[in-house]
Amino acid sequence: MVDTERPRHVFMAEESLEGWIRRENARAELYLLRNVSPQGARPGAIIASPSRSNPDYYHHWVRDAGIVVRAILQLYRAAREPAARLRCFERMMEFVDFSRHIQQTAVQGGTGLGEPRFYVDGSPYTGPWGRPQDDGPAIRAIELTHLAFNLLEEGRRGLVQELLYDATLPTGSVIKADLEYTAHRWPATCYDAWEEVLGHHFFTRLLQRKALVEGAALAARLDDPGAAGFYLEQARSLDNELRRHWDPERELLVSILDQQTDPPRSGLDSSVIIATLGGYSIEDHELYGEDLFPVDHEQVLATAAKQKRTFQSLYPINDPARGVAGIAIGRYPEDRYDGYRTDSIGHPWPSLTIGFAMYHYKLAMRYRRRRKVVVTPTGLPFFQGLPGESAQIEPGEELLEGDPRLERLVDALLREGDAFLARVRHHMNPDGSMSEQMNRFTGFQQGAAHLSMNYAAFLLATEMRRYLLSPT
Q1: Of 1.20.1270.20, 1.50.10.10, 3.40.50.720, 1.10.3720.10, which CATH number belongs to 10-469?
Q2: What is the pLDDT of residues 232-273, one digit of tens each?
Q3: What is the C-alpha to C-alpha distance for residues 446 and 60, in angstroms, rounded to an integer?
Q4: How many CB atoms lie within 10 A of CB 64?
Q5: Where in this chain does the record put each GH15-like domain (predicted)?
């Protein structure tokens, strides 16, 4: 049998993972910022990809742009050079201005702030599409709330109140507009993160809850107690709805309820795990109290384990006989979008594979901080799938501070996260660029080139890894 997989470059075998991460971080930052306020676009527009045909991704998606801004805020916080810090600040302020513009434009349309896609001049995309998509306003509110708290720490309260949260109704500020939309809209159905199916989605709901909880904290900080109470009340109402997504027979957090599609989806979807990564940044993820579905929740662990097993067997490039570490992760098993057509077969995505790396890093960090691991029967399959002695943990066991098995578990999670990065590295283009998908048979990149989400995911995951490895 001829191996059709892309030949690896010599540096792949010679360069350490640490060295490659440093080099790829620099390239990811460069590629990402090229997609922010590109020439000819309204400042603040963030293109999903420079690809203008087959497929045309030269548009601003609210969801994608919000995640990109999360990465830019991280770059802003980490910047050592004043020029780099200023560049990131300017891009974020342009994004705020662009967001205010498209909010005002969207209000005039039929789906309001749930309009998902805009041309780079700020006008809404008018073609047929899955509308509304309510994850977008929630994600934008989360990331701009993080920015607002950062600016408040810098003493820029006036800027926050002018542009981000003005504590008035009707509001002219971006965050409050998104929070009001989310607080009133969350009971309704919408389209999923993949823009394909109408229903109630775990991904959207968990991010809506996080937006409302963090938005309440910001409202309280800015002397808007009535709004803070209202947002928290709506977040509590979401709790019971989110718990409905657990299927005890399958031991799976299903991605969609009340779905309106035929044939119905299985509900096994990587967006569930990706949702647990959103919202709380590494600096403030414990600021607002316990999350409803933290990364170490037994139901999240069980879902992650089942997804890893499913994609391991689904994609031929994941065959262990090929000798490549890590599992390439796709959207969902029934996926028929190949990056060009919707009547084909889906493939693994770099951004999702990187997201699973970040999940393992974040889980390791949580265990290290809490100094306690409780192994339940529901979560056991996840631990059994880890490398080394961690697979030998028994249900009912507790690993506490001082137990050498706790550090071995953290190390196993680090190695498992690194394996996901190694998988992406193996299929990456020689120049460090990444497209939307990796062919399930050959590993070649396909679909929209220079996908912004890939670079944002890489920067976020490797920063989480750096944080995990930093001295405690």
Answers
A1: 1.50.10.10
A2: 999 999 999 999 999 999 999 999 999 988 888 999 999 999
A3: 20
A4: 26
A5: 32-460
